[in-house]
Design brief:
Structural class of chain A: alpha+beta
Distance between the termini of chain A: 82 Å
CATH topology of the domain at 19-80 in chain A: Cell Cycle, Chain A
CATH class of the domain at 19-80 in chain A: Alpha Beta
Helix content of chain B: 40-55%
Bound molecules: adenosine-5'-triphosphate, magnesium ion
Number of strands of chain A: 2
Number of strands of chain B: 8
Number of helices of chain B: 13
Order of helices and strands of chain A: HHHEE
Oligomer: heterodimer
Chain lengths: 92, 269
């Protein structure tokens, strides 16, 4: 091994950066791919229900399905507006 | 029972056609009746790599359209009696490959062949979907590079869901990883992903590693599958791939930097 090779091999190569990026990318792709097809529809309907009571934006709600061991966790996040006063419930 | 093998990739230009030609020739050399079909409609490559482009009269599309029968369209390889080539046409109409038409041709070929190797175009275009749909086995050709690995993972999702086997609730397509254009020197220097890293990310059965090799271009120049080149490291690696596919357990070669002789050390890069 030449001197140049020695210095090269001690430098942290770009391959390890590639590996880290790939692990994140592929994990994201797989979550999107494996999530059930009813998710977008369910998100829309949930939003409609919530809007009956609180005025929230389309992007204030996020639905996430995560795999944790052999458990699936459905996570629902709703960001309420700062001064959310309860709206009058429609139709009651 | 006939096995239909699709050679696929997400990213283009990674070595599918090179692999299809080598694997088909390798299977046929070992006495298995094999046909290699070009699904890359519009580009037409496999006849060039196999060196039979001047013998093409009818093609896959003609057979699907009923303009020729399968025996008129297939070309028998001059080097190996058990190998046939079914070329495709340069038509722009990719929709010519209908699922019904393709299925009928594959059924007919299944009556007389042991292996049907399908050289697919890259990605998830129509031709690629047709090649994947009927497969029993898939060789996912990947280069040690970020976009190629990511796109391979996407193909795995499609192989798992959009196939005849998936639709009929049969055992899923068997997926194999083939890493090509591998440079041990660059891996050692930390510039290229290591085969173990790629395998860890994709978690697929590793069918083989084909080194980056000049002999691949010379083989394609000559119209001779690289597996026929006895002096080529890539050719040897493809021979191992065929043996492994057929069930032999062989250690992976060409993963380390090859020691050069004195002349190589003095003049080599
Ligand atoms: N192991 C290798 N070493 C060096 N060059 C290679 C190797 N494998 C493939 N190549 C070269 O890479 C190029 C693309 O190869 P090939 O045509 O087999 O890829 P492909 O995946 O079929 O491409 P496409 O997606 O366009 O169909 C060719 O020029 C070929 O010679
Ligand atoms: Mg090709």
């Amino acid at each position: 091994m030449g001197l140049l090779d020695y210095f090269r091999s001690t430098r942290r190569g770009s391959a390890s950066v590639a590996k880290e990026r790939l692990q994140i990318l592929v994990a994201h792709d797989r979550i999107a791919r494996d999530s059930p097809s009813y998710l977008p529809m369910m998100q829309k309907e949930l939003l409609a229900v919530i809007c009956k009571y609180v005025q929230v934006d389309q992007d204030a709600i996020s639905v996430n399905l995560e795999q944790d061991g052999n458990q699936e966790i459905l996570e629902l996040n709703i960001v309420l507006p700062e001064h959310s006063s309860p709206q009058q419930a429609v139709g009651s | 029972m006939t096995r239909i093998i699709v050679v696929t990739s997400g990213k283009g230009g990674v070595g599918k056609t090179t692999t299809s030609a080598a694997v088909a020739m390798g299977l046929a050399q070992r006495g298995h009746r094999t046909v290699v079909i070009d699904f890359d409609v519009g580009l037409r490559n496999i006849d060039l790599i196999m060196g039979c482009e001047r013998r093409v009269v009818y093609d896959f599309i003609n057979v699907i359209n009923g303009e020729a029968n399968i025996n008129q369209a297939m070309i028998r390889d001059k080097r190996c009696n058990d190998l046939y080539i079914l070329p495709t046409s340069q038509t722009k109409d990719k929709e010519a490959l209908t699922r019904k038409g393709v299925g009928k041709v594959l059924d007919e070929l299944s009556e007389s062949f042991d292996y049907i190797v399908c050289d697919s175009p890259a990605g998830i275009e129509h031709g690629a979907k047709m090649a994947m749909y009927f497969a029993d086995d898939a060789i996912v050709v990947t280069n040690p590079e970020v976009s190629s690995v990511r796109d391979s993972d996407r193909m795995l999702g499609i192989l798992a869901s959009k196939s005849r086997r998936a639709e009929n609730n049969q055992e899923p397509i068997k997926e194999y990883l083939l890493l090509t254009r591998y440079c041990p020197q660059r891996v050692k220097q930390g510039e290229m992903l290591h085969v173990d890293d790629v395998q860890e990310i994709l978690s697929l059965h590793l069918l083989g590693v084909i080194p980056e090799s000049r002999s691949v271009l010379s083989a394609s120049n000559a119209g001779k599958p690289v597996i026929l080149d006895e002096k080529s490291d890539a050719g040897d690696a493809y021979a191992d791939v065929v043996e492994r596919y057929l069930g032999q357990e062989l250690p992976h070669r060409f993963l380390e930097v090859q020691r050069k002789g004195l002349l190589g050390r003095l003049f080599g890069g």
